[in-house]
Structures are given as C-alpha cells and as structure tokens.
C-alpha cells in the first residue's frame, strides 16, 4: 500500500500522524480512499446532485470490524464522521466535508430463512436487493417505493411504502440489530437487549450508532399484486382528490393509494398530446388476492374520466421499481414535507395552487397514504412519531441547472408554509432537507425528550451528528 498523506484532511481537524493513518489503513479488511484515488470522486457522489462535499477519508467497509475501527479512529482523532448506506438521503448526510465517511455500500448480504420467515440484511443492501431475495420465497418486507434506496437509512427513519398499511412500517418488523456504538463496540439490540437503544433506533435515524446487521420478520406475499396508475387531467384534480380522500376512509389495509401531481413524463401509455402537461396520477397497490383487489380498487378507478388506467396484476418487485426512472441519481433535489391527519379542502386548494406554478418538468408533489397497521401502534412504542398521520406530503423539487436553485427551492418552501396550519406538526425525518435542523424537536413530538436522554447515554459527545441531529445536551440547555 502507498503511504497516505494527511493533506487530504481539513487543516486543524486532527493531530494524528501519517504513521497512524497508514496503520489504520493496514488494519482494515476493506479499502481506505483519499482524494488521490482514481475512484474517490465516484465514492463521494451521492443521489442528491446538490451535495458536493470532499471528505478526507472514505472507508469502504468489508464488515463490522472495519466499522468498529473506523468509529474509534474518528473519535480518537476528532474527525467529523458521516455514515453512508445507500447515499439516498435528501439532506446529503451520507458524506461530510473534510472528515471520515464510513461507507457501508460493500456490505450487501441479504439472507432469507423461509422456515422462520426471518431476514438478515447488511446495511449496504438496497430495497431491490431485499425484494430480489424475499420474493424468491413468496415473502416480503414492507419498505419504501424506490428500489435504489438503501435499506439502512430508510429503516432507521421509519420506512413506509406500498405494504405499510398491511404489515406496518419497516421498523415495526425489526427483531434485532447489531450496532457499533460511539465507543466503537458492537452490541446486539432487541426488545430484551439494550431496550432503550432498540427503541431509539426505530425511527431515531443515525443518531445512536452504526447498524451493521438487521434482523426482520417477513410476511407472505405472492409474486403478483394488483398495482398501477390511473392518470387524470389536472383540470379534474380538485374533484379527484375530494373523491380520493372519501374512498380511502373505508379502504382495507391491503389497499394503498398515493396521489402524484406533476407534468406528465413521456410514458408510453399516455397519448403524446399529454406529455409535458400537468396531470394527477393515482398510484395504487393491493397486496392481497387479485380478485378482491379489483373490488377494493374499483371505487378509486371509477373516479372521473381518466386519461389512462394501467392498473393490473404485476410482479411486486417490478412495481417497487416503477418510479425508479423518475428518481435517478445526479439531479439537484430539495424536499419539504408535512404530515396530515386529513386531506382538507384548504390543503387541497394549496396543493393545486402549487401545481399551477410548477417550476420545472421534474418537480412534483406526492401525497403518501399511510395509517392502517402502522397507525395502530402507540406513538410511544417506538421513536417514530407519526402514528396519527394518514397522509404524508412530500414536495419534491427536482431540477438540473444550478441557476434554478432559488426558484425551485422557493417553490417548495412556499407550499410548505401554505400547508403548515393544516398539518399535525410531526415530520418524516427521511424527507427533511439539511436546512431543517430547527425542526427536529417538533418532528419527534413527545418522543424527543426520551431521545435526548438515550443520546446522552450512548453518544454524549455527539459523534454521530451528520443526521437530523438529536443533541445530547438539548434538555440540559433548556433547563439552564
């Protein structure tokens, strides 16, 4: 191995020697990258193209031992530390400026035990990796809606998508985890082992350690679900949304339907004259018997006079990848999110007003449909605070040119402010951008105080702070 040089780190950040750095590299089973390596720029690139940070060191970990060594090295040398799983976080916290990145992407093992319906996953796996293995046995884990998302970040923030209403959040299906703490120790957590840490990791994000292995329970799910899009003209959007919310009041847990408003991409099933025009799409999935699904989805499919209806039996893994082409890496992205107990007339009006002012062809608004099994777990049972929300709004500004930054970000913020008085106050931390650190306490609601106490116990120096950060001193400052 060539000798490494400390000039790759920010000046004044560390007092380590080159000898110590080379000793650290030699002790890794994985690979240590610096700015002089040919694949350094690829390794520091993440999904959100707005994030352009140059870490001093990137450790591509081969296993838990590498993670333990990296955490200790960062702590002992006072390095800013970031943890990368799938690199899909909107806030860009998977990479830091000048410090050390623990890159978990090489750790991709996914193992299914069909007899016990258990799943063991390493943190570098994506949702596509999980679906590929579980569906081979007619099993599934409830996760998100974009298959390139990393399982670790999605899970630690809560995890919701097409199967949530039937099988709960991703965190509701965790049996145990193996976690490297701020001391660099590997501990197992479950309901009976380190129960406070187990509670905090289920929704508390990356604040408390680096998870090197997840154990999940799985659910029976045949290869096909009833899923697809019903696309409406935007001129009918108010009527469609009002009927949509009414139908969902009595929807079975197996049925999930999200509303998407944007300019129509050039999808092959849409007439060419609709490409580039504003539309509203109902994206639905029924995760049960196909014939029963047709009955359950009929009321949604009967709304209005759609441009296209492409709902039908489809492999679940394929439906999980349906939105991937619209969410490829490299574009500039900024999100704002709200939780709603109901989709009120005033909220609908604000949404429609924003769609009329879409700043670009890739900007969109998602209304996620949740509740069901996820809403029947008490708020205090996990760190995840959103058990009372039935709809989650994600204002997704997406564009290519830096010159459009202020326009697109301003559009997202304007809709966020317009809907604030109709929201319930909590927030899905995986949807929060990097400029919302002042929102973290409100996002966790009544669970925040316990999170600060657990943070103070497991990470009193706030080593794990590249996240939607829960600060260990927060309660102490408030009391002073």
**Overall mean confidence score, pLDDT:** 95
- Biggest sheet, in brief? 8 strands, antiparallel
For the secondary structure, the number of strands is 19
Class derived from helix and strand content: alpha+beta
Provide the β-strand percentage band: 15-25%
Distance between the termini: 51 Å
What Rg do the Cα atoms give? Answer: 22 Å
Overall, the morphology is: globular
Helical content stands at 25-40%
As residue ranges, the low-confidence spans are: 475-480
Number of helices: 15
Architecture overview:
The structure is a single chain. The chain has 480 residues and is of the alpha+beta class. 27% of the residues lie in helices and 22% in strands. The protein contains 15 helices and 19 strands. It has helices spanning 18-26, 40-44, 64-76, 127-135, 151-157, 164-167, 195-201, 237-248, 290-301, 316-320, 345-355, 405-419, 440-444, 448-458, 474-479; strands at residues 31-33, 57-60, 81-84, 100-103, 110-113, 118-121, 139-140, 174-180, 186-189, 210-217, 219-220, 224-233, 255-263, 278-286, 308-309, 312-315, 332-340, 364-369, 391-399. The strands form four sheets. Strands 12, 13, 14, 15, 16, 17, 18 and 19 form an eight-stranded antiparallel β-sheet that branches. A five-stranded antiparallel β-sheet has the order 5-6-10-8-9. The chain has a four-stranded mixed β-sheet with strand order 1-2-4-3.
